[in-house]
Each structure stands twice: as C-alpha cells, then as structure tokens.
Amino acid sequence: MHSANHWGGSLEIANNGDSTAEEYDRSRNLDWDKASINHQQQQQYNNYDQYSQRHNLDETQQSWLLGPPEKKKKKHVDLGCIVCSRKAFKYTIYGIIIAFLVIALPTIIAKTLPKHKTRPSPPDNYTIALHKALLFFNAQKSGKLPKSNGIPWRGDSGLKDGSKLTDVKGGLIGGYYDAGDNTKFHFPMSFAMTMLSWSVIEYEHKYRAIGEYDHVTDLIKWGTDYLLRTFNSTATKIDKIYSQVGGSLNNSRTPDDHYCWQRPEDMTYERPVQTANSGPDLAGEMAAALAAASIVFRDNTQYSRKLVKGAETLFAFARDFGKRTSYCRGNPYIEPFYNSTNYFDEFMWGSAWLYYATGNKTYISLATNPGLSKNSKAFFMIPDLSVLSWDNKLPAAMLLLTRMRIFLNPGYPYEEMLSSYHNVTSLTMCSYLQRYQVFNFTKGGLIQLNHGRGQSLQYVANAAFLASLFVDYMNATGVPGWNCGPTYISLDVLRRFATSQMNYILGDNPLKMSYVVGYGNKFPRHVHHRGASIPSGKTKYSCTGGWKWRDTSNPNPHNITGAMVGGPDKFDRFKDARKNFSYTEPTLAGNAGLVAALVSLTSSGGYGVDKNTIFSAVPPLYPMSPPPPPPWKP
C-alpha cells in the first residue's frame, strides 16, 4: 500500500499483519527504559507511539521518524594532545589552585618583602682571644714594617742590626723582639715559629674559618725569612750561626737593651751580635722551625724547598759530633736569660719535623733510636720533663711521634720505640690531672708546672695545647679515652683540663682578671714593655730619659693587644706593676703557646685536626719483617 509522505517523496509501507506488530512491541519494550530518559524525550516518544499506532509503522519507519538517537554527554575532556576524564581535570585544576596558594603565593610575598641577612653565629671566646693573641706578634716585629702591620704606635726599627757583618748581605734586619725589651733571642724565637707552624698544620681549617690564615702564615714567614739570614742557608755545611742580636749584661751601667728604657724605634746604642760556633740545641730548634714551616708553605714550592734545604743544613751542624757544646755555654749575653739545659730533646724534635718535611727515613731512624731516648731521659718519668717549654721539647716531640703511630701505624722497625713514646705521652697527660697530684694547683685551679716561679702562664698554655691535641688525635681514631694506671680516663676529662686552664687565663679566676691584654674588661694596664709604655710621636726619649715611663704608676699609653703576661703567683695573686716583670712581661714563646692552645679549643671551623697534611712528604710505609728469633738452645 502507498501512503502519503508528509516530508516529501513517496513512501512505501509494507503491512505484514499482526505478527509484525507483536515483534515491534517486543523490540520496543526491550530497547527502552522509560525511567532513564528525560521528560522531553518521554513526551517525544509518547507522541511517536500515538502516531505509530495510528499509521501502523514498522521499526525501520520509526527510525526515519525519530532520526538518529541522542548522543550521551561526554565524560572526558579533549585537550588536544591529552584526553582526561572530567573528574581528573576538575581535581587537577583544584590542585593547581591550592598549590599556588600554599607555595607560590607565600614565595612571591617573601620575595617582595625587604631582605634581612641572617647573622652568623657569634664567635666563641677562644676565637675572640685568638684574634687578639696574633696581634701581639705584629707588635713585636723588628725591621721595616709593612703598612698593613696594624699597630699604629709601632714603626721601623733595628734597621742597623748586623750591619757590620761582612758575610750577611743586608745585615740581620727583621725578626721579632722577644719580650718587653728590644733583644732578638733566636732560640725562643725559633721555638715560637715552630709552635705557630704546628698549630697551622693541625688546624688550618680553623684559621681559614675565622679569617686568620693569611695573617698567621705572614707572621711565620716574617720569622723564617729572618732565621734564614742568621746562617749561610745556601750552603750544605756551615760552621756558625748568629744566635742573638742586642742584649745586655747583668748589672751593666752602659747603654743596652736592659739598662735603657726606649722604644725600639729610638734605639741609638750598640747592639752586639752573638755568634755560636757550636750549638746542637739552637741548630736543632731552628731546623725544626724551618722544617715545620716548609709544610705550611708546601704550595709555595720554591720557598718550601728553600726552607727544607736550610733545615737540613742546620741539622747537620747540630749533629756534628765536634760541635756538641750548648749554644749559650759561657755567654753572659745569653746564659742568664735563655739557658739550654739539654740538646737531645732538640735532636728528637728536629728529626721528627725533618722526617715529616722530607720523608727521609734517616730522620725517623734517629728519632726512634734507643740511644736518643736514653740521652734525652725520655723514659725517666721526671715530672719537669713532661712540661713543654722553649727549653724542653720532649713532651711535644713524643706527642708528634705518637701521631705517626696513631695515624700511620708503620710497624717494624719503629713500633717498639713509637709505642714507648705513646705510653709516656699518655702518662704525661695523666700527670696534668689534679687527681694524681703530680703538680700542685692554686686554689683558683691553675696548675703549677714551674713550681710557683714567675712567668707561669706560658707553661700552662703549652700544656693546654698538648692536652687538647692529644684529645683530637684520639678522637680522630675513635678512641674515647686512655688508661692512667688501672683507671680508664675519658677524653672529656682531659679536654676539661685544657679548657679550665685557658678559661683561667681569660678571666675565670679569683681576681676575675684576663691575663691577655685587650680581652675582657679587666686586664693588665702596666705591662712591662718598652714600646707600649712610652708615648709614640715626635718626642724621642734617651736611654735614661725613658725611665720616667718605666717608673710611673700611670697605665701604659698603648695597650699591647693580645699579649699574655707572665701571670699570677701560686696564691692566685697578681701585681699589675711595670717593674714586676715576672707578673707583667709577655714573651714571644709564651704567646705562641697561647695561640696554639686557643686555636685547638675554638669551635669555629669545626672540631678535629687535619690528619693527612703533615704526612704529605712521607712515602708509603711497608713494614719490614722482623728478624727471625735466635736459634733455640737447650
């Protein structure tokens, strides 16, 4: 049958009777869930039902009438190169907004606010004191001073020293004045340079951290440059050393460094030069100073080699069997002031430093020779020999060699002697502890290493350095303590000894006085020192004209910053009087120990020592096999 097509064109509709209608109804009921479509769709289908019933349409015709089925709403978002679900896209947008609020916004605000630099942690007391202690060496310089010397009341001086010597080009200009007078004593000066170099080798990282590395190395070089002029440093063999410039005779009434009270810039009197034609002690100490400095200046190859060459020349002079008389024997300009009591300690000290500087096994063989320890009385356990000073290097030399055993463990043939040095060093540390009553202590807690005599603090500072260094060596190997007889002692106990002694020096004492000039609010104002006690300026005072400045009760016009004075007596009493030099006179050797102790204890730059630098020139050690035991005999 044909029916009219309301949309144009002809439309043929086939009528297959009831079966077709039933199939349609069944199909319609299966394909549509009226509860899941919207109202508009429902109305559309109701209209469609009425029409299809009225016109009797089959399924194909119905599809023409309804058109294509409505597409479901997309559940994904097409971003071009990425397709994601709407839910994920929504959460992503939320996440970006939250991240902006939490991270980006505070960052933007922080960057727009005014910037305030974070202040570094303040330096500890030891660092503050160390800055000052180094300045003492600037105040003691002799010669033509650089503009950067930093001591406004000091100027050029001693420019005619050694000018009459025909074998020294340019004379003996430079170096350091020893103490409150204007004498250049080469023996304690050398010891001071060795101590400064040792402290730099062990604690270079600390000096760098506090900005003093260039300063301290300049001070060392000022000293070693001068020492190289006191002998023929270009030769391999020498027959003399110039041992002192200036000085005085006891009870002299002629112008000299003690009789006169003048600034070094104003000296006009004769300054004699002392010559040592033998001197194993002086030469051994000078060799140690140059060898230790060669390690400090290892990056300056030419200068370091020059120092090593000079050290070897000096040590050969020291070891010359025909020149074994002390450098000061019978010399009235030296013996009353810096008398050397032995020279085998300088042999051990100098040979240890030369081994570290050169790696030459000849030196370590000497340092560990049983004859050397016997002649130096290293194993006699005499309390005074455990006290480090410009005269006695035994405790320092044995600690320096103990270092080799701790870190290198060279074994045979050195182990036996190194082990003995290690044992004695451990006992030395025990002797510093008050519980063992080897040394007396004042009521205020100061150890009396020189039995209550004057100038006590230099020995205390040296002991504090050795104790602190021993602790650092042990800590570097993870050993927490050592034995004093049957008692195990924690390293903290020894560290507390070192800090207590330095704290006493810095003001933790019954008088609440700092014995380092310029440190703290209360310190000595009448220091026994010519340059600091006389006003600087155009007025020059004669030899005796300066006595009024020596004798006045007024404070010094200049504070000699960083100078550690002689210190209190055995009753913790101190007389701040210029004429009482045992209380108020600083020394070069004393301040070197002070500097070493302070840098070992400061926490600036971290803790611990540089384990390896000192061994830079030491070749790998391969222990030899010990000799076989003698054949058995019944």
From TrEMBL:
<dbReference type="Pfam" id="PF00759">
    <property type="entry name" value="Glyco_hydro_9"/>
</dbReference>
<dbReference type="InterPro" id="IPR001701">
    <property type="entry name" value="Glyco_hydro_9"/>
</dbReference>
<dbReference type="GO" id="GO:0030245">
    <property type="term" value="P:cellulose catabolic process"/>
</dbReference>
<dbReference type="InterPro" id="IPR012341">
    <property type="entry name" value="6hp_glycosidase-like_sf"/>
</dbReference>
<feature type="transmembrane region" description="Helical">
    <location>
        <begin position="91"/>
        <end position="110"/>
    </location>
</feature>
<keyword id="KW-1133">Transmembrane helix</keyword>
<keyword id="KW-0326">Glycosidase</keyword>
<dbReference type="GO" id="GO:0008810">
    <property type="term" value="F:cellulase activity"/>
</dbReference>
<protein>
    <recommendedName>
        <fullName>Endoglucanase</fullName>
        <ecNumber>3.2.1.4</ecNumber>
    </recommendedName>
</protein>
<feature type="domain" description="Glycoside hydrolase family 9">
    <location>
        <begin position="126"/>
        <end position="598"/>
    </location>
</feature>
<keyword id="KW-0812">Transmembrane</keyword>
<feature type="active site">
    <location>
        <position position="576"/>
    </location>
</feature>
<feature type="active site">
    <location>
        <position position="528"/>
    </location>
</feature>
<dbReference type="InterPro" id="IPR008928">
    <property type="entry name" value="6-hairpin_glycosidase_sf"/>
</dbReference>
<keyword id="KW-0624">Polysaccharide degradation</keyword>
<comment type="similarity">
    <text>Belongs to the glycosyl hydrolase 9 (cellulase E) family.</text>
</comment>
<keyword id="KW-0136">Cellulose degradation</keyword>
<feature type="region of interest" description="Disordered">
    <location>
        <begin position="1"/>
        <end position="25"/>
    </location>
</feature>
<feature type="active site">
    <location>
        <position position="585"/>
    </location>
</feature>
<dbReference type="InterPro" id="IPR033126">
    <property type="entry name" value="Glyco_hydro_9_Asp/Glu_AS"/>
</dbReference>
<keyword id="KW-0472">Membrane</keyword>
<keyword id="KW-0119">Carbohydrate metabolism</keyword>
<keyword id="KW-0378">Hydrolase</keyword>
<dbReference type="InterPro" id="IPR018221">
    <property type="entry name" value="Glyco_hydro_9_His_AS"/>
</dbReference>
